[in-house]
Structure to design on (444 residues):
């Protein structure tokens, strides 16, 4: 469920700012000029006017073309609608999902932006394919269960998934203030109902309490005596610190962090059961305090040897190598525990990309230096990377062959160099000598 530095990469993996439109040149409508201003058109016939009026208001589920911020028309699906204040009976605004784009670009649009001539008459009632294909682990089902979606069977049925989608469809909080940043949010987060009418929330950057009004935050900041996340500082190198927060000892902080994180993670399922998790909160420190840049969470006890549940770098701090740092850090903890680890599944495509990069760099560095044979088991012991992840990584790089009933690593030095170059730089290094930590033990 990783989502790391997501705005830099589109769903197909190409690098791009999330505000930039994918190039879609063929779909410009003839009656809109390139800058979006309407071009002079012949007057509408009475019949056309009547036909259009009969469609309104559009039903939820309608598919239609919508003029986007690039002044071009793109296919959308209507997710929700709401009445325009003081408008007529059929005056609605529409919350739309651009079917070509990531859900973080979902937004409210005005009727003028929709091309009614392109309305598809068949309303799509099917659950989105990607939802039905989601395979959930028992653990994730439990988490969804706690967000009040009924789960009665071993498999989440389509209706439950749909309910989950319904519940998470519309972005509620549009922006947040956190420390010195105002940040635009990407996804729905299930804040308590009393916050459902808020467009903006004000967070205390240290205890992560959130408020509806700026004055409330100012009052809070005069009283709040935290200058860093609660819990133990387990790593400090230069201006960078990592804090370990026990969800059981700091329940409210853990919950606040989950509400905040969900604003930037699509398929993260929010759990209130933060007791079972440790949160590793990465901070940039200065004389005003330790400012959170991102975090990952980890189950205290994982039957599936997960060493990371959720991972996030906050948008203002992305593209600085913090996501890679967090991944590397999770493996350093596993090494100290003497266990192998793997991130919880499903990984987002972007999460998988980051992990593939990390695995490639770590494994190929070893293969480059190593003389003689080395087995996957030995690689796993050295790196704390799970054997399956090593196998799939090396297979995807064509560095492994199946001979006489076993996998053989074939490491041609030139090929290794080429792959290492493609995997990019590792970013910020974790300096293990600065990590002061003992693995979690349940206190009786
Ligand atoms: Zn506070």
């Amino acid at each position: 469920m990783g989502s790391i530095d997501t705005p830099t990469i589109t769903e197909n993996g190409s690098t791009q700012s999330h505000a930039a439109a994918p190039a879609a040149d063929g779909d410009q409508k003839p009656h809109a000029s390139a800058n979006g201003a309407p071009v002079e058109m012949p007057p509408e016939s009475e019949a056309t006017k009547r036909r259009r009026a009969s469609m309104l208001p559009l039903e939820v589920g309608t598919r239609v073309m919508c003029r986007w911020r690039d002044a071009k028309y793109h296919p959308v699906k209507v997710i929700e609608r709401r009445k325009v204040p003081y408008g007529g009976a059929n005056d609605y605004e529409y919350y739309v999902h651009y079917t070509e784009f990531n859900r973080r670009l979902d937004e409210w649009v005005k009727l003028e932006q929709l091309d009614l001539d392109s309305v598809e008459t068949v309303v799509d009632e099917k659950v989105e394919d990607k939802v039905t294909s989601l395979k959930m682990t028992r653990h994730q089902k439990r988490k969804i269960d706690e967000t009040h979606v009924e789960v009665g069977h071993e498999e989440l049925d389509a209706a439950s998934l749909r309910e989950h989608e319904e519940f998470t469809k519309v972005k509620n909080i549009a922006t947040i203030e956190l420390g010195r940043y105002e940040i635009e949010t990407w996804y729905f987060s299930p804040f308590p109902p009393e916050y459902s009418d808020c467009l903006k929330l004000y967070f205390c950057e240290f205890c992560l309490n959130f408020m509806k009004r700026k004055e409330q935050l100012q009052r809070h900041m005069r009283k709040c005596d935290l200058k860093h996340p609660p819990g133990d500082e387990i790593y400090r190198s230069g201006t960078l610190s990592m804090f370990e927060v026990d969800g059981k000892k700091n329940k409210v902080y853990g919950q606040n962090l989950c509400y905040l994180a969900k604003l930037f993670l699509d398929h993260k399922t929010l759990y209130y059961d933060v007791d079972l998790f440790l949160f590793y909160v990465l901070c940039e420190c200065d004389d005003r305090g330790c400012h959170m840049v991102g975090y990952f969470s980890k189950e205290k006890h994982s039957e599936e040897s997960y060493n990371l549940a959720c991972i996030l770098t906050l948008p203002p701090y992305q593209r600085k190598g913090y996501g890679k740092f967090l991944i590397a850090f999770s493996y350093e903890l596993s090494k100290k525990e003497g266990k192998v680890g793997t991130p919880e599944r499903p990984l987002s495509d972007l999460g998988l990309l980051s992990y593939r990069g990390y695995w490639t760099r770590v494994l190929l560095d070893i293969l480059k230096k190593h003389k003689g044979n080395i087995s996957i088991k030995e690689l796993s012991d050295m790196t704390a990377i799970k054997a399956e992840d090593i196998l799939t990584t090396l297979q995807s790089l064509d560095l492994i062959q199946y001979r006489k009933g076993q996998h053989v690593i074939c490491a041609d030095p030139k090929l290794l160099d080429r792959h290492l170059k493609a995997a990019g730089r590792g970013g910020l290094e974790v300096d293990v000598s600065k990590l002061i930590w003992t693995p979690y033990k349940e206190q009786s």
User: Anything to note?
Assistant: The chain has three domains: 2-120, 170-320, 349-423. Residues 349-369 form the longest helix (21 residues). Residues 251 and 274 are 6 Å apart (CA to CA). The first strand starts at residue 2 and ends at 3.
